[in-house]
Amino acid sequence: MSVPQGLPLIDVEHLTMRFGGLVAVDDVSFSAQPREITAIIGPNGAGKTTVFNCITGFYKPTVGRLTLRGGERDYLLERMLGHEVGQRAKVARTFQNIRLFPGMTVLENLMVAQHNKLMRASGWSVFGLLGIGAHRRAEEAGVELARGWLERIALIDDADRPAGELPYGAQRRLEIARAMCTEPRLLCLDEPAAGLNPHESAELNQLLASIRDRDGVGVLLIEHDMSVVMKISDHIVVLDYGRKIAEGSPAEVQDDPAVIRAYLGTDDEAIDG
Amino acid sequence: MGARLPSMLKDAGLTAFVAAALGIFIVGFRTVDVGRGLTFDYHLVDLAVAVVTIFFGRLGLSLAANGLRWPAMALGAAMIAAGVSPLQLPSGFLHWFVALGGVLLVIRGAWPWANDAMAAAAKSPSGVVLGQAGAKWSGWLLLAAAVAMPFTPFADQKTMDLGVLILTYVMLGWGLNIVVGLAGLLDLGYVAFYAVGAYSYALLSTQHGLGFWTVLPLAGMMAALFGVVLGFPVLRLRGDYLAIVTLGFGEIIRLVILNWFDLTNGPAGIGSIPGPTLFGAVFAETPPAGKQTVSDMLGIPFDGNHRLIFLYYIILVLALITNLFTQRMRRLPVGRAWEALREDETACRALGINPTNTKLTAFAVGAMFAGFAGSFFAAKQRFISPESFVFIESAIILAIVVLGGMGSQIGVVLAAVLLIGLPEWFRDLGSYRMLAFGLAMVLIMVFRPRGLVAHREPSLRLHPVKPGGSG
Amino acid sequence: MAYFSQQLINAITLGAIYGLIAIGYTMVYGIIGMINFAHGEVFMIGAFISLIGFMICGMLGIGSAPVAILLVLLMAMAFSAVYGWAIERTAYRPLRGSFRLAPLISAIGVSIALQNYVQLVQGARPKPGGQIVSGGFNLFSADGFDVRVTWLQIIIVVVTVVLMAGFTWLIARTSLGRRQRACEQDMKMAALLGVNVDRTISLTFVLGAALAAVAGMLFLMYYGVIDFFIGFLAGIKAFTAAVLGGIGSLPGAMLGGLLIGLIEVFWAAYFSSEYKDVAAFAILVLVLIFRPSGLLGKPEIEKV
Q1: Mean pLDDT of B37-53
Q2: What is the pLDDT at residue B302?
Q3: What is the chain C residue with the closest CA to A19?
Q4: Domain-located, residue B123
Q5: Which of B14, C2, C109, C191 is least surrounded, with the fewest CB atoms within 10 Å of its CB?
Q6: B284 & B419 share domain
């Protein structure tokens, strides 16, 4: 199942996305390695979320190739229909503005994430309805998987509460756990630290590090909170006005003049703020 | 408080003024056809009474909202008194209008107390036990009552007819609840699938001699097929567009039935549809050629009510199957995906769930149950025509689901009894029934959008419910 | 050719009426993104108020048709506008922020309630309206067939064109129009900039209802008969027109109205009049499936 040695998990090549006359993403290429956290940063409106939407099948790129390496085969994400990216290529994502199923319980949220696996086990509902076959066992295994994640994100006691009732920080964690319950190859997180207090941010860092190290999942991360980005990223891609302006390790990116310019203005202006 | 009175009076005056403007022509001048053309039948006094009632009603509501419960309730009591008094108001409706307005005011005035009392009762230990037992047993009690009904002394022909009617709507409500309540797809053409089921049975039985029990599954499958074929191209549409498209489909199917004389006999409908048989025996006093009557088979004297009791149990069983099926589906992955779709379709897509297929299953399953109910309807009525499948039927079924609480099975039963049963018992109110339906839909959306029974039971739990705890 | 021309004239007349109703759908959808299902009933109520208005004019001895038409027009617009306002205030405004389908369900409730209210107070039987304007002239004759334009048809088209021109001016040039367009773009931002959003939405309903009332009056004059149920079909067809033209677009509503008029009249004239309503519904379904943004609407980009 793992990616062949030495090859990236995902290759983004010449990705361009136009909306009418507006070029939101302009010829961006980068790669993300398996078992690494790759951060995409940049000022507001740099096109980060658009890149995510292209990778996760919400937009069809105008130009470009998105290759995701599975164990046995490669997936060309730009050719897949919306939900297939999650279903077949196993790319999971979270959203900038949290999108849980608020009326359903925390546990149900995690069960829905295992939909495709459980659907097969229930014989597309036929066996499930009759109560025969492997359905019951698969369901129990699914609950166990969910229980494991609930323990990791410290929500085990809230398992039967509606997800919408959870405090904000818990909802963020739950959304990540829900994405992980799809057992993805690549996890795309859109500003997971937004709105978190420093303590919660630190917890998030640990969670992301454990997803990388313990679960071995590649993470693609959009984030504004530099305390998160610089601490846990292995690789950083910087976008500005839809173009890639820099790429490298946290240390490299921090010292890159183009990045400083993008964030703090041009060289002519005094950099004293 | 006193300082607010002028503004309350002004507000009430404004409301009354708007009411007068709304009613002045439509209510005040009733057009009557006298053969040579139209003349007026003036109802300006009626309008004046209604406007005055609205003035005081609005005033009372403002009072209650500002904490002046006693004055509000006193006003309500005065209105009730005026309503039931021998005072000669221009029409009986106005007596009702004034009195009901008063009742509403009294309820509104007492509402905070009732609310506190209910909250306190729900928290007290005995209240918790009672509440849990109620939630657990109310369904079974209802079921027991439904099963025993034909053997109770009330079971005359009228009550049995009503029971069959209510159960038909309960079944339709449960079927539509899958589509609207669980999957969150507003289907305004649900009655079309009911029509497909009804016409399937009517045509197959009268033209090909097939029996009810043979056609029943076929009719369900036929309706489900229609659901898939119609649903496939449109289910990716946004919620409100989908609603309008389903309305369009519903009307198209009705218009085709109405105009396709060769197949459906058009507006004249199809008659002499055979009723359902019991192990091949028919319900009749004298057997048709080659058939046996049920009374002969069982060796009991013929009674016209037997047929009705039989029909009652058929629809009861069909409705229960619908309910069981739905309960079971809710606990399967597909059922959870339905609810997830209702909550957030975008998130579903991100989790790799195919929204179109998932919606399609909900649509098809809902249609299938409408098909079953339709063929039962045809077998019961023995005559069907396009008139039974107009948009308003879809709206009634939708109202039942909405009023009951979308997704709530017991809520549908309550709503069906309220919306179908009450108007039948109070015949006088029959002509106001649809008006009340419409208003009820608005009021529910404004004041209690989750319906009468808002409680949602999770499809599975990690921790068992603690006795005495509220979950 | 003559037959075709005659049908064309009839279609334009009908299309004008649909266009007027469609504007109400399109404006409301543009500003709060809901299908005002009860809009067809406002049209029906407008027709009833017009009927009563013409009868009152008759009783008051107003013999001049132009004066009567003008009076009734103003009366129907004003009093139907109150309906538009009251519906929004009681059934839709409390639902802002409720769940997605709540406004539509509420609107269906309003629609059912209004239909039955009119049925109760005015009776279920069709009401003959009598003839207010008669006569016309022959445009030309061909194949032994006179192509005729009635004065009424001219009145309908002229009233429609004048109102639509005025309305386009209102939206494009006045501060009300600017506020309305601001709310369409971004309601929260408009509110922050000092636009009274509630009042703007109310005014949208008032204007839509007034135009529907005009359509109701023209319908009454054109067909001569109305009943409590006319709002359902006319409403659906006008909604189809709004969608066909591109919902949210004013010129789209007019174009859509015209097209629906054409389709309906020509379908009935050349194919079968039984299935003319099926044609309208089929167009609705097909447009929504294949081009939900309509002819003149902008496609929506999904924001994630």
Answers
A1: 88
A2: 74
A3: C301
A4: no
A5: B14
A6: yes
| Percent of chain B surpassing pLDDT 70 | 93
CB-nearest partner of A56 from B334, B350, B456: B350
Residue A272 pLDDT grade (very low, low, confident, very high; cuts 50, 70, 90) = very low
Helix ranges (DSSP H) in B344-426:
345-350, 355-381, 391-404, 409-416, 422-425
Topology, domain C2-290: ABC transporter involved in vitamin B12 uptake, BtuC (1.10.3470)
Chains that touch A (3 or more CB pairs under 8 A): B, C
Percent of chain A with pLDDT over 70: 92
Mean pLDDT of C261-276: 85
- Mean pLDDT, rounded, for B144-163: 83
Number of compact structural domains in chain B? 2
Highest mean predicted confidence (pLDDT) among B284-288, B412-416, C135-139: B412-416
All partners of chain C with 3 or more CB pairs under 8 angstroms: A, B
Q: Is the separation of the CB atoms in B147 and B292 below 8 Å?
A: no
Q: Do A83 and B339 touch (CB under 8 A)?
A: no
Show the 3-state SS of chain C: CHHHHHHHHHHHHHHHHHHHHHHHHHHHHHHHCCCCCCHHHHHHHHHHHHHHHHHHHHHHCCCCHHHHHHHHHHHHHHHHHHHHHHHHHHHHHHHCCCCCCHHHHHHHHHHHHHHHHHHHHHCCCCEECCCCCCCEEEEEEECCEEEEEEHHHHHHHHHHHHHHHHHHHHHHHCHHHHHHHHHHHCHHHHHHCCCCHHHHHHHHHHHHHHHHHHHHHHHHHHHCEECCCHHHHHHHHHHHHHHHHCCCCHHHHHHHHHHHHHHHHHHHHHCCCCCHHHHHHHHHHHHHHHCCCCCCCCCCCCCC
Provide mean pLDDT across the span C126-136.
80
| Confidence label for B469 from pLDDT (cuts 50, 70 and 90) | very low
Evaluate whether residue B124 is within a structural domain.
no
Q: Give yes or no: residues B292 and B432 share one domain.
A: yes
Kindly state whether residues B315 and B426 are assigned to the same domain: yes
CATH number, position B178: 1.10.3470
Candidate from A85, A105, A129 with C-beta closest to B332: A129
Contact state of C120 with B435 under an 8 Å Cβ cutoff: yes
Q: Which of C116, C239, C302 sits opposite B244 (nearest CB)?
A: C239
Instruction: For residue B141, give how far its alpha carbon lies from the nearest alpha carbon of chain A (Å).
Output: 26
CB < 8 Å to C127, chain B:
31, 33, 38
Q: Read off the pLDDT of residues B267-315 as tens digits, 9 standing for 90 and up.
A: 888 888 888 877 777 777 777 767 777 777 777 777 777 888 888 999 9
Residues of the domain holding B19: 4-112
Min distance A66 CA to chain B CA atoms (Å):
17
Q: Hey, what amino acid is at A269?
A: E
Q: Look at A6-10, A172-176, B17-21 and tell me which has the smallest mean pLDDT.
A: A6-10
* Cβ separation A58–C302 shorter than 8 A: yes
CB contact under 8 A, A95 and C302: no
Per-residue pLDDT at B131: 65
Which of A:52-111 have CB within 8 Å of B? Answer: 56-58, 82-88, 90, 92-93, 95, 99-105, 107-108, 111
C304 vs A58: CB contact, 8 Å cut-off? yes
Give this prediction's pTM: 0.86
Of B342, B352, B456, the CB nearest to A86: B352
Contact check, Cβ <8 Å, C106/B240: no
What pLDDT digit, counting tens, does each position of B165-196 carry? 999 999 999 999 999 989 989 899 999 999 99
3-state SS, residue A186:
strand
- Asked if residue B105 is part of any domain, the answer here is yes
Task: For chain B, say whether A125 makes contact (Cβ under 8 Å).
Answer: yes
Q: Chain C within 8 Å of A60 (Cβ-Cβ)?
A: no
Give the residue with greater pLDDT, C139 vs A166.
A166
Does A119 have pLDDT greater than 90? no
Same domain? For B50 and B181 the reply is no
B435 falls within a domain? yes
Neighboring chain A residues of C302 at a CB cutoff of 8 Å: 58
| Interface predicted TM-score of the whole assembly (ipTM), two decimals | 0.88
